[in-house]
């Protein structure tokens, strides 16, 4: 190859130099460590709304994806039908049973098939008393003239595990889930096996009805620039926003943000375009707040909303720890190969 020559009056810099004498790698090392912050806005038995701040978009999206696909829950996985002369075939009923949310507070006590495979790869043996599944039964016969609803309340749970039940199981003032309807002379008898799993394998193990996040808007209004507009034009600006986020102050005659409605803004930019039509471009600027995400998580009932978030963080932490270990192995192998053979291994 050609020999690099130093130019007169200049200096040789690394190929990844950013121009100020420091390499990009060195620049990256000086970046401050992120310290994400969480603020719970509202929480109830069905949903939780919380803010995640001071972190990257990739982290927020990773958390959302883990909540949907990798938080372990319990669900009916196998169905053995002993007798069925209802209007629904065996496969249809099995599918309906699988989609009944099962209370999964004790999911951590179960060992799933993918955990068994992981133990096998690491040379570990599964304990004989390890909990892998529980069995439900269902046996209903209709001998009345009126149609009989077979619901989740008719399922007989495993009495050794009284906390593992369908959601709202025999709860007063709570509507159970209908499985099938029977007319006189029809019956159904089956056994259902409940196992631990994750949403990545099947949607029946997904604990979330909804798991989304949005980036709240940052609004800047230059009322000095808007002061040359008439009251009618200002009202037209306010009315241009379909989500009714803006309001016209009757006292100051200035356009203001309705903070209680700001979360409804959908980045439609209608008010911005309307301002441009009045030759007031730049008077209203709407941007996304940097490193600020508002999550809404709704549960199917298998887990409490806050449990879903906390369990997802545990899974994400475990993944990062595994990535760190595997990276260290590769780096150590690289260093050993370099010292032993005098060259850097290529991957």
UniProtKB/TrEMBL annotation:
This protein's UniProt keywords: DNA-directed RNA polymerase, Transcription
SUPFAM superfamilies tied to this protein: Insert subdomain of RNA polymerase alpha subunit, RBP11-like subunits of RNA polymerase
Alphabetical list of InterPro entries matching this protein: DNA-dir_RNA_pol_30-40kDasu_CS, DNA-dir_RNA_pol_insert, DNA-dir_RNA_pol_RpoA/D/Rpb3, RBP11-like, RNAP_Rpo3/Rpb3/RPAC1, RNApol_insert_sf, Rpo3/RPB3_RNA_Pol_subunit
Biased composition (Basic residues): 1-11
Transmembrane segments: none
Region of interest: Disordered: 1-36
Sequence ranges of Basic and acidic residues compositional bias: 26-36
A family per Pfam: RNA_pol_L
GO MF entry, a single one: DNA binding
UniProt domain DNA-directed RNA polymerase RpoA/D/Rpb3-type: residue ranges: 47-326
Similarity comment: Belongs to the archaeal Rpo3/eukaryotic RPB3 RNA polymerase subunit family.
PANTHER family linked to this entry: DNA-DIRECTED RNA POLYMERASE, DNA-DIRECTED RNA POLYMERASE II SUBUNIT RPB3
Protein name: Plastid-encoded RNA polymerase subunit alpha
Organism: Chloropicon laureae
